[in-house]
Design goal:
- The protein is of the alpha/beta class and about 375 residues long.
- It contains 14 helices and ten strands.
- The protein has helices spanning about 10-15, 55-65, 80-90, 105-110, 150-160, 185-215, 225-230, 235-240, 255-260, 295-305, 305-310, 315, 330-335, 345-365, and strands at about 45-50, 70-75, 95-100, 115, 140-150, 180, 220, 245-250, 270-285, 320.
- Helix 2 links the parallel strand 1 (about 45-50) and strand 2 (about 70-75).
- The longest helix is centred in the middle third of the chain and has 28 residues, at about 185-215.
- The protein starts with 11 loop residues before the first helix and ends with a helix.
């Protein structure tokens, strides 16, 4: 949703014109804890995030009214870039909570010690497979599948079957059609690299990318540029006269094109190549050195609440992680279910990510 992720990704709704969020509200709560005076505590809690964080105003207002905190959202580019800034400011963070670190970048965040452990209220409602950090330095918030999307109209006009698998993308009929994000700067780009590692293994993935490069893959810095400028199938890409009918995005991207279509189409104009996917999980964490630690904890609790989890799919186009959250009809009708996404074990990502990205860069970018 990096977006994460997307999805995200999940960066999809923001890229299509949803307004940047900076909410106001809250009350005049005072710190009445033992040993404290009646000095006012901070009423503002700051969420640092990638660009795709979004929430319905009414849902956020309800949290603010119940908690007494005002939420400020500081959007900081793609997930990789946002995390880099937090690592550089470790101990003196720009906010209280960071949202958007995903399983592709998780070990980097944890190894750099940017988070303070906190076990969220409501963590017991989260599906166990998403709880990847047993020390609770981060809390799972959403999941999504990074996949190649295709422009249905392009392939219908050319009378070419759209690709469905990673193997398909290196075939001659798809030469010069794919745009992807830089694996060094973008979480979807890194997720797509990891899909190839999961599919072809330590030796095979390098040969695969050599073939993709020979087949004309285009690499751009981040998701918004790839999806909203270069991809011919998105609303933004059409306006920008994008000429790439294949893009690395999310399995939940098609519902965005329906929701924001003018007029709203009966079917999504984009499709998903379900044999190209990598599963992404996004997390939130309490930043070490946060000025408003209590407010940060309350905000993390809110992110795993049923209210936020059910609001999230049509705001960030990602899947909830809590067990009883329901998906909206539009999301289920126009999205796809990826039964067998590629996966790479978190410990393998932690051990090899930096070298994989370095090797990928030398093969594809330089």
């Amino acid at each position: 949703m990096s977006t994460t992720k997307k999805i995200a990704g999940a960066a999809l709704a923001a890229a299509l014109g949803v307004t940047t969020l900076s909410a106001c509200g809250g009350g005049d709560a005072k710190d009445k804890s033992a040993g404290a005076s009646d000095a006012p505590k901070s009423k503002t809690v700051t969420l640092v995030s990638h660009d795709s964080f979004n929430v319905t105003e009414a849902v956020l207002k309800e949290f603010e009214q119940q908690s007494g905190y005002t939420v400020k959202v500081l959007k900081s580019g793609d997930a990789g870039a946002a995390l880099n800034q937090e690592i550089l400011t470790k101990g003196s963070p720009r906010g209280d909570v960071f949202f958007g670190v995903d399983n592709t970048l998780l070990s980097r965040a944890l190894d750099n010690g940017v988070f303070t452990p906190y076990q969220a209220k409501g963590l017991d409602t989260v599906k166990p497979e998403f709880v990847l950090d047993k020390q609770h330095r981060v809390t799972p918030v959403d999941s999504g599948d990074i996949c190649v999307n295709y422009d249905k109209a392009y392939f219908a006009e050319k009378k070419i079957a759209p690709p469905q698998t990673l193997d398909d993308l290196v075939k001659p009929e798809y030469k010069n059609l794919l745009v992807t994000e830089n694996a060094a700067t973008s979480s979807p780009g890194l997720g797509f690299l990891l899909a190839s590692v999961g599919k072809y293994g330590e030796e095979g993935w390098k040969d695969y990318w050599s073939k993709l490069k020979a087949n004309g893959v285009e690499v751009v810095d981040g998701w918004e540029q790839a999806y909203n400028e270069r991809f011919s199938g998105s609303a933004g890409g059409k306006k920008a006269k994008g000429d790439r009918p294949l893009v690395v995005s999310y399995a939940s991207s098609p519902p965005v094109e329906v929701l924001y279509g003018e007029p709203q189409p009966a079917e999504a104009p984009t499709g998903v190549a379900t044999g190209t996917c990598f599963r992404q999980v996004e997390f939130a964490g309490l930043l070490k050195g946060a000025k408003n630690e209590e407010g940060g904890k309350a905000l993390i609790d809110f992110l795993v609440s049923k209210k936020f989890q059910e609001d999230m799919p049509l705001q960030m186009f990602v899947n909830p992680v809590v067990k009883d959250a329901k998906l909206p009809d539009l999301f289920t009708k126009h999205g796809v279910v990826v039964d067998k996404p590629e996966n790479v074990a978190p410990e393998a990502i932690a051990k090899n990510r930096e070298q994989w990205v370095k090797t990928w860069s030398s093969l594809v970018v330089k």
